[in-house]
Amino acid sequence: MDSMAIDREQGPSWARPNWPVSVLDEVNLGLDPTEATLEKVAAAAKMAAVATGTADEAAVHRAADDSIRAMMLIRTYRVRGHLAAKLDPLGLSHHELPEDLTPAYHGFGESDLDRKIWLGGVLGFQQASIREILPVLQSNYCGTVGLEYMHINDLDERRFLQDRMEGKDAEIVFTREGKRSILEKVIHGEQWEKFLAKKYVGTKRFGLDGGESAVPALEALIKYGGQMGVTEITVGMAHRGRLNVLANVMGKPYRAIFHEFAGGATNPADVGGSGDVKYHLGTSSDREFDGNKVHLSLVPNPSHLEAVNPVVLGKSRAAQTLRGDKHGDSVLPVLLHGDAAFAGQGIVWECLGFSGLPGYGTGGCIHFVINNQVGFTTSPQFARSSPYPSDVAKGIQAPILHVNGDDPEAVTFACKLAIEYRQEFNRDIVIDMWCYRRFGHNEGDEPSFTQPLMYDAIRAHPPISQIYGRRLMGEGVVDQAWVDEKTKQFTTLLESEFEAGTSYLPNKADWFEGRWHGLGRPGEPVDARRNVNTAITEEQFDQLSALLTTVPDGLTVHKTLGRIIDAKKKALVAGEGIDWATAEALAFGSLVEDGYSVRLSGQDSGRGTFSHRHAVWVDQRSGEKFIPLRQINDGADKGPRFEVRDSPLSEFGVLGFEYGYSITDPRTLVLWEGQFGDFANGAQTIIDQFIAAGEAKWLRASGLTMLLPHGFEGQGPEHSSARLERYLQLCAEDNIQVANCTTPANYFHILRRQMHRDFRKPLIIMTPKSLLRHKLAVSKRDDFTGEGHFKRILSDLNPPAQGKTRRVVLCSGKVSYELMEARDAAGDTGTEIIRIEQIYPFPAEPLVKRLAAMPKLDELVWAQEEPKNNGSWHFVEDVLEQSLAESGHGGMRPRYAGRAAAASPATGLAKRHAAEQAALIADALGHSSRSAAPVTAKVL
């Protein structure tokens, strides 16, 4: 017996031992609320029987019983009919008709099948026999489309889907021209793959072979979406079929793709960047159907299959916000998934979870699963613990349309129904297209190593164009000559485009068009770049101060928050002692006043992890929320506004969402805040593949800002380090900015600098914890007004006399204050503490000038709290040595002061932490005996 048969015999891991249920089980008795209750059904059936004038009491009871049982049969088909649907083109996943879908299970014997039963309009029948309704139910629910929708709570949604799937006249109907158009697109999809296979033998293309019905179906989304008000569609998909979609759906020029196959660049040579393989690339275009123009964009995607999902959703949300589209009717996100990835990747659930959230919903996403029934080499029974890959979507009550990929009309119908549902209810919906992968995972793969039976069936299976073409020939819609002519026309076109591809040169890059008009690449190299003036006016300062400290009449704030507001007001009026949270609020508010929007999201961002921000005031009596900064431009559907969102407990999904938002709207300061800095670990894919490399790979700029609480305060290994070293390791070619600010004013200026420059770069900020309330980490009114700007280097609060500096300690973050306090306490007048506020791009030029003005300098120390293998040391060591040489101190090498290399970023023991901290500070200041090795400060 083959392995597949053994698996079926043993049954899947998700099989229910008590299924099918008894007729009296609540699943079967709980009729669809769109119909009458059991009592009403029985009463109506009795009335119908009595109305004949010949019914005796037994006949009346039998009529009622027949109606009830018939209704239960109908409902069972609604719930479980999909299990008997003809979904697998290969026939390998054949299922026998479940027992509870048979009339006998519901008490109808052979002699009962022709008896008329009162149905009251259900399925389009007032009265019908079981023999009459059974083929209708099987046609509706067990054909090449299987619908799962009875898990949905909303009555109107179920009724909507039921009306379109159910009834004696409910058939998939396309016009003669519509059928021809579907077949022609299938031919295009197939011939495209064959052409590539012939021209580029052995080259990876991750072909759509076996799933070409997706091509006309996706076109249907564009066509019908355009009719229903959609003007913009953002698409995300993995490799499988990407080139086919790019060419035959998105409209990317064939010659451009052939140029890329030949090793040509995607963009003009003067643009630079690393580029990417062709099956990762995106494109944008405009398609028009019936006079409705729809803008399409396919988002570039890395090899992390589902990582693009949140990016697409964030991009769509930003476009909707810019349009003032509160329900998402005009902007549609579409995600194409692989079956194994949809079931296996946790990011899928994170994104499904966004669908109903106020700050993250997109008015419904259409999910299209290209179900190859295999993931690389893994069969479904080893890849998931559920019957279908789409089962995860039931968690958000999304309807699921399972459809046979060999029936392109059915797949196109499913897409038409999906867009109708989405536009009506603004909810997610899933299309699970069962197909196959004609070749291996890539075209150089040998799939028979692991799926011999499946690939025996695939080799014997005709292509979709043949199956559907014969069907249309039988209907008299086309003949063989028509098919041959359409095939010839398309292959001739491809040959001409192939020739054109040899001389094709991309003439422009599209990254600074549309909403990005007016922005571009930095006009100066990093070492010559100057900071823009980011100070605000005195009037702005006063207006924002009043806004941030005025409690509206009728709002009852928490008593502790009241004291915080009073303290904030006192500091703002005095112009001294302005703390971190206040500086941040001034930055946000002033940006909104300057015409920029601000979107801040993260876990607990409204209040702030450390109860410091309080961007949202909650009425202690009503629970209603008041957001002071929202009062700027309040009530406007469009235009600049402040938005703060407490996100779901997700890092990967939310950071990807915010990145997608940032690449769409460059006039919004988009910030994601980690509850603690190390929480960003869960979003490492987004950081590595998109934030750090997206500009180089795909020419997609982003101004996304990440706020990562960081600082060693004895809180243990998990919440001390934001893993600064990981971001620095990613730094190159001016790709991102990494900062560790130490004053509220400098934080204020770096946030405003993000928007007031004429270019965008991601910004990663190590934000403080203890410095949020540190007595020295405060700023004055003058630091925010006048001619201020962000300072990449900050001076010592109590430096040595001019020319007297013998030791310079460079550092970043909160350790700077500890170093200054310890230095002053020791009476050390020869040591200068210099704070490096921006670590990348490293401020080498101003540092060289400072060092050159220190003739008596005999030691340069880099001090950090992080272990030696973490933090900044390995990043700055070379640049510090170069700076020393350029400043005239060429014989000197920088010295490290800090914790020893460690597997864990921090100790969890308070005494050990205190000893380590004291030791590294003493070592940095030269107050301890030195050794060649870094200080370990181990407490035994």
Describe the structure concisely.
One of its GO terms (molecular function) is oxoglutarate dehydrogenase (succinyl-transferring) activity. By secondary structure, the chain is of the alpha/beta class.
CATH superfamily of the largest domain: Thiamin diphosphate (ThDP)-binding fold, Pyr/PP domains
Write down the CATH class of the largest domain.
Alpha Beta
Strand order of the largest sheet: 3-9-10-8-7-4-6-5
Cα Rg: 33 Å
Global structural class: alpha/beta
Number of domains: 4
Task: Assign an overall shape.
Answer: globular
Q: How many strands in all?
A: 24
Keywords: Glycolysis, Oxidoreductase, Thiamine pyrophosphate
InterPro entries: 2oxoglutarate_DH_E1, DH_E1, KGD_C_sf, ODO-1/KGD_C, THDP-binding, Transketolase-like_Pyr-bd
GO biological process, one term: glycolytic process
Cofactor: thiamine diphosphate
